[in-house]
Amino acid sequence: MILAHKTYLLFLLLLIPIAVLYWRLWRKKTPSMRYTSTVTMEQLPRTWRSRMQHLPFVIRCLTLGALVFILARPLSHTAWNQKETEGIDIMMAMDVSTSMLAEDLTPNRIEAAKRVATEFISNRPTDNIGLAIFAGEAFTQCPLTTDHASLLNLLQNLRTDLAYRGMIDDGTAIGMGIANAITRLKSSKAKSKVIILLTDGSNNRGEISPLTSAEIAKSLGIRIYTIAVGTNGTAPYPVQVGGGTQYVNVQVEIDTKTLTDIAQITDGQFYRATNNKELEQIYNEIDKLEKSKLTVNQFSKWHEKYQPFALLALLLILFELFVRWFVLRRLP
Fold first, then answer.
1. CA-CA distance, 93 to 132, in Å (whole number)?
2. Within 10 A of 228 (CB to CB), how many other CB atoms are there?
3. In sequence order, which residues have a C-beta less than 8 Å from that of residue 10 and are 6 or more positions away?
4. Residue 245 pairs with which residues in a beta bridge?
5. At what angle do helices 210-219 and 174-185 cross, to 10 degrees?
6. Element of type H or E holding 145
7. 0.85 exceeded by the pTM?
8. CB–CB of 228/200 below 8 Å?
């Protein structure tokens, strides 16, 4: 617990002159009856009422102390602070076009990519990582964050039937996917900014060409690691026919030259993954990237804690009234 207004505790010093004044006034009290000598009375035993005569004043001082603590505004909060940690800012741009359902990787391209990406994220707990997805158009699935639990949840819920459901246009807009990731990294203060682009096709949609996006990334100091996923030759692709699923072999067409150029322009690296093991090895290699310092902003939630002091003050007031009216009551 901390106090928001610690200076209010200085009011507790007022209890010192109040106590001195009370003591002086009590000593100067004039007795109601005069005696020639009080020697015999001094030898009488003191009663419990005489011993408790200062209790109301003590209770009132405690009440004032509780009220001062209420004014000081006691608070409690969670231990979430701003801190510096070692890390790197990474945007993962993942292709979610319908061709990612091809089953040349186990169980298919998109699920294999999700599984390896999940392990990659779990192994970098101090990094700011975000997720952009693209097909015929691109949008951000998750902005840069160190809340990897939320990021992994969004990644696991990633689907490739967005085009079937009419949510986005089908196709492969590699340039738009890179551009979307750039918008999330351009204001980053990290020393190292990286985009990991994973796709299984050639750019055929979008208003921005992949090489133009690469030049923009280079000007902002962003490196792009490109991953072409898919076997060589043909790949089995599921097709829904009459309420069932049939498989047809489709030609794998990946523009490896453009992906290589993107990596070279941005001082990145091009990788080719034809199976699950190669894809895992690629992410392991990228995992060896250098680290740089970044600031993690963690938010605190404050809770007011004046209630116990308010309850204590109320009980003390009631107790003082009880003592004055019933225990130490004086007849006129």
1. 5
2. 23
3. none
4. 240
5. 20
6. strand 138-145
7. no
8. yes
